[in-house]
Structure formats: C-alpha cells, structure tokens
Design a protein that fits this description.
Bound molecules: nicotinamide-adenine-dinucleotide, thymidine-5'-diphosphate
Oligomer: single chain
CATH architecture of the domain at 2-194 and 227-253 and 290-311: 3-Layer(aba) Sandwich
Strand content: 15-25%
Shape: globular
Radius of gyration: 20 Å
Helix content: 40-55%
Number of helices: 13
C-alpha cells in the first residue's frame, strides 16, 4: 500500500491511474478537493477495490494519523499543494497554509508513523516530496539548466512556498533520518490538467473561439514534460532513489510561450480544421515578477537510473489536444462558477 496526497489533482490523478494500471499495489488517496481537485478524474477507479479515497487536508493531523494507522503504507508521495503562480499572486495565504504548514504537518505525521514501524518496514519506508524547478528562480538566456545543487532563488509566492517545503523535507531527513526523496520537475502538461494553466487554457479558449492570452512578449521559456513521463520518473525515484537525495526531472523541451501556442494552434488545425486559431492570439499584461526562463538538467536521474522521457513535445502535445477534444464532459464539470470567477479576475482584473 502507498499513500498519495493530492491524488485528485492533475499530476496526482495521472500518477494514481498509471499506478493502478501498471501495479497490483493498492493506493490510499488523500485529497482536500479544492477547486483543483476533481473526483471525476478518478472515475475509471470507481469499482477498483485497490483505490481508497479519503477527503482530508494534509494539515489535519488527526485524520492523517488515522489514515496511516489504518492503511500502514510503505511510502507517502506528496503531490498536495496549491500550484498556480497567478493565484499565488492574487492570494498567497492558501499557499502558505498548504504548501508550508500542511507539508510540515504531514512530515510530523510521517515521522511519528515511521518511528513506530518495526524493522524491516522502517528501513524500507519512503517519503517522496513532489516539487518544482521554479524554486531555482529565473535562468539567464544562455545559462545551463538547473541541477540538483543549483542554489534556491524562488521569485513568486508559489515558488517560495514550495522552496520552504523542500527545505523542511531536507531538514527532516538531516535531523531525524526520515527517508525522504525530493523531485524537482519542470512544467508538466497532459490529460486532466485544470484549464487555468497555459496549455489547457489555450486549448479551451481556442476551441471556444476566444482570445489566446499571451503574457508580455510571449518569449518566456519553459521546459515542457509530458505528465506520464513525470509519473514514470517518480515511480523510478520511489523504487531506486537514495534517501535524502533530490532528483531533477525535465525533458530538454524548451519552448517560448509563443512557440507553444503556435504549435498548439497547428495541432488543433490538423484535428479541427476550418479556423485560423493563430489569429486568436492576443498579447495581454505581463504577470508581475514573471520568471523569464526555466530549464532542467536531468542528467542525474538519467545517468543513475536510465530514466528518459518517452514523449517528444510534439507527440505529447498531440496526445493532449486529442484528450481535451475527447473529454468535453470532464471540461464542463471542472469549469464551474469558481472557474469563471478566476478567469474574470485574472484576465479582466474584475471580480465576476
Ligand atoms: P493541482 O493544483 O492540479 O492539484 C493539487 C491537488 O492537491 C488538488 O487535487 C487539490 O485538491 C489537492 N490539495 C490542495 N491543497 C490540499 C490540502 N491542504 N490537503 C490535501 N489536498 C490538497 O497540482 P498539480 O499540477 O497536479 O501539481 C501536483 C504537485 O506537483 C504540486 O506539489 C506541484 O507543486 C508539483 N509540480 C507541478 C508541476 C506542474 O507543471 N503542474 C510541475 C512540477 C511540480
Ligand atoms: P503556467 O502554466 O501558469 O505555469 P508556470 O507559471 O508555473 O510556468 O504558465 C506557463 C507560462 O505561460 C508562463 O510563462 C506564463 C505563461 N502564461 C501565459 O502567457 N498566458 C496565460 O494565460 C497563462 C495561464 C500562462
């Protein structure tokens, strides 16, 4: 049994679905179901006795202690977080609560549980913390990609809160010996991503004939990784990672935001011809403190474990576009009143 937190969100749900498809081992999935969590993403597991869902906050120590005592997992994989930079600019408090205070509470629960385990379960236990490349800050145009020893320099409330959680995880290994592993990954894309992030937002707006809002000059660079490749990397780190270590995960797929949107318009035009999607591109006010470039040097996980992504950016993007075109019911379900409020606030500056 493994315990996954945030398993109703984008990466967590992909991880749980892939895990159940590939392995026999059961999963207990703890998620608070914020606006970003959606049980519809886990509909395929409705009749799966190996998937146990618990609606709870990672900061709710009593419930987490009870879940650990009842299910006795061999590992905790912590995806739960507030994850959207723009929301962290409008309202940072939830990021401090979940990403810092919540991770702290989860670490305390994990430490108490792990300390109580008999051998060999105690030595085998792992706490995997899922983090981001954004903790390293913004890269100069010609600088090498972030590696595991790059100093932290977070620039947004989101990345600062993730950096704080990474430091807590590191300290729990160093001080208490908790067998932690941290992964710092680049931007993910793929099925089940909430349509507030760049790629699904652009797909949804393109299909609806709405403007495609590119921040600033559109030349900010991100290193894009298909979510299924990220999930495979996490499984590898869980199975083979050295306690206390961190692993950077990325796929050498640096693209400017404008390149991403143009590629997306081309893929859409192949699948849904008849419209010039590129004509919908509209440049809008830049994000405050917008990091210019992220890129990951993933040579450690590649050299140590042979992990390498299977999808290219073009193949992954085509799969993603096809998925969104095929899953309009999922999209409708997640695009609630709360979603429309966010779109009004972020893109017109007006509360809905
Ligand atoms: P997401 O926002 O799609 O999902 C987050 C999930 O966590 C949701 O289901 C939400 O309900 C749940 N959650 C939030 N607060 C909670 C709490 N207090 N207790 C329990 N559950 C809670 O995020 P995502 O994109 O799937 O990201 C997952 C993790 O991966 C995050 O830690 C994020 O920092 C990290 N990450 C994301 C990316 C990316 O490109 N999306 C890249 C690198 C790392
Ligand atoms: P996002 O998906 O929010 O991820 P992150 O900020 O964590 O990298 O944004 C990816 C890039 O796309 C980032 O440079 C901001 C930009 N962006 C836009 O230009 N327009 C948008 O509407 C959004 C949501 C993002």
């Amino acid at each position: 049994m493994i315990l996954v937190t945030g398993g109703a969100g984008f990466i967590g749900a992909n991880f749980v679905l892939d895990w159940r498809a590939e392995l026999d081992e059961p999963v207990v999935n703890v998620d608070k179901l914020t606006y970003a969590g959606n049980l519809g993403s886990l509909a395929a597991l409705k009749d799966d006795p190996g998937h146990h869902f618990v609606r709870a906050d990672i900061g709710d120590r009593e419930t987490i202690d009870a879940v650990l005592a009842a299910h006795r997992p061999r590992a905790i994989i912590n995806f739960a977080a507030e994850s959207h930079v723009d929301r962290s600019i409008h309202g940072p408090a939830a990021f401090i609560d979940t990403n810092i205070v919540g991770t702290f509470a989860l670490l305390e629960a994990a430490r108490a549980y792990w300390s109580s385990l008999p051998e060999p379960e105690r030595s085998r236990f792992r706490f995997v913390h899922i983090s981001t490349d954004e903790v390293y800050g913004s890269l100069a145009p010609d600088a090498d990609g972030f590696c595991e020893t790059t100093p932290y320099a977070p620039n947004s409330p989101y990345s600062a809160s993730k950096a704080a959680s990474d430091h807590l995880v590191r300290a729990y290994h160093h001080t208490y010996g908790l067998p932690t592993l941290t992964t710092n990954c680049s931007n993910n894309y793929g099925p089940l991503q909430f349509p507030e992030k760049l790629i699904p937002l652009m797909i949804v707006n393109a299909i609806a004939g709405k403007p495609l809002p590119v921040y600033g000059d559109g030349k900010n660079v991100r290193d894009w990784l298909y979510v299924g490749d990220h999930c495979a990397a996490i499984r590898t780190v869980l199975a083979r990672g050295a306690p206390g270590a961190t692993y950077n995960i990325g796929s050498n797929a640096e693209r400017t935001n404008l390149e991403v949107v143009h590629t997306l318009c081309r893929v859409l035009a192949e699948q849904r011809p008849g419209r010039d999607y590129g004509a919908q591109i509209s440049f809008v006010r830049d994000r405050p403190g917008h990091d210019r470039r992220y890129a990951i040097d993933a040579s450690k996980i590649h050299n140590e474990f042979g992990w390498t992504p299977r999808e290219t950016f073009e193949s992954g993007l085509t799969r993603t576009v096809l998925w969104y075109l095929d899953h309009t019911a999922w999209l409708q379900a997640v695009s609630s009143g709360e979603y429309h409020k966010w779109i009004s606030l972020n893109y017109t500056g007006e509360p809905a």
